[in-house]
Amino acid sequence: MVELMISAPASGSGKTVLTCALLAALKERGLNPCAFKCGPDYIDPMFHRSALGVDSHNLDLFLSDEDRVRALYRRYGGGHGAAVAEGAMGFYDGLGGSTHRASAWHGAHTLDLPVLLAVRPKGASLTLAAQVKGLTAFRTPSHIAGLFLSDCSPMLAKSLKPMLEEETGLPVVGYLPHLEDAALASRHLGLQTAGEIKDLTARIERVARTLNDTLDWEKFFTLFDRRTGWEAPTAPPLRAEERVPLAVARDEAFCFTYAETLDALWEAGAEPVYFSPLHDEKIPERACALYLPGGYPELYAAQLAENRSMRQSIKESVCQNLPTVAECGGFLYLGQALEGMDGRAHPMAGVLPGEGIKKDRLVRFGYSHLRAAGDSLLFRAGEEVPVHEFHYWDSTQNGEGLTAVKPLTGRSWRCGFVTDRLYAAFPHLYFPGRPGMAERFVQAAKLYRKERFHHE
Question: What is the mean pLDDT of residues 73-89?
């Protein structure tokens, strides 16, 4: 089985383009690859899914412990002939930017994965060797097994390869030249989502064809074809009538959902039923719970406001105690109004008191812990749950139901609206990382079904 992590000295080194191209090339070779993203990232896995046609999964060593990450890796890698994990940020950049915890290196070390390091030789040559030597010496073992030259011309690659191999002792397994029409556009939360790039498949296919010619496949397989594969574990199935319908928002505005969270809810007994707050008239019939994930509601604020029937449907349902989880963008949607990209305030569902407003910088960015003073829908008194935030919008009323605490500095603030039927806050949750949350949500949905529908 081919296994590797793709990382780099810093962001902007072409990791996502290389990962997608490699996945497409491995698929073309019949290896049935799967993908992973190390870190709390929703967008890059969308690109992996576009290249593969199957889900990509997150592995996060802050949101989950090491044993859980190993279990997730084996679960989702099972039955595949190749597993490619993409690291986040720079190779050693972890929690708070000052530790290696939850970094790409930490992921490679936990999973015992060899690393293909992507370097971009812009304005440097021999200095690249010094940088690589520093990276290999910084932690032992470094797990770096090979080098890849990103955004590098054929002539420069031919010149750099022997020098880098001699100076670093690491093989250079290939390069990708600059491909203008394969570039991926960015905006305030990172890359545009895969669904917004109309010719994404053609772009990835072009890069994959180029990679087929520029990658030393014999050397690649020597380095990364490591061990026999394994079979994916299977969970005992539930009968359809035992499952409880869970309405899950999924469209252009609400697209930040961890596949592993949905799997955890499925295993707890939920039946995800997808709907669109943008395009549908109301939430699904007989829904016994509601999940409003994050995304880009600020880009679609006017369209969300125009869908009055959906806003009314959600307001009535939540106010009638439908168990609801609303994270980040979903939290903003439950507010009174949301400032759009046009600078205007557009009416939202009106369940919560605050209004969403644009800020000029990231707000409360990064990892934190949520501390619960009392019992609620997802939490029990005294629990501490790892979460993350990443948003340029804020609310005029963030709530007081929980306490968020930064793990290194101890800085804290109050946030969230929580009851026995509601979690609504900016922090994103990762259900597999905290056993019990999915079961509590589904149990509340079953109770709602019994209260609401038992006479029918």
Answer: 94
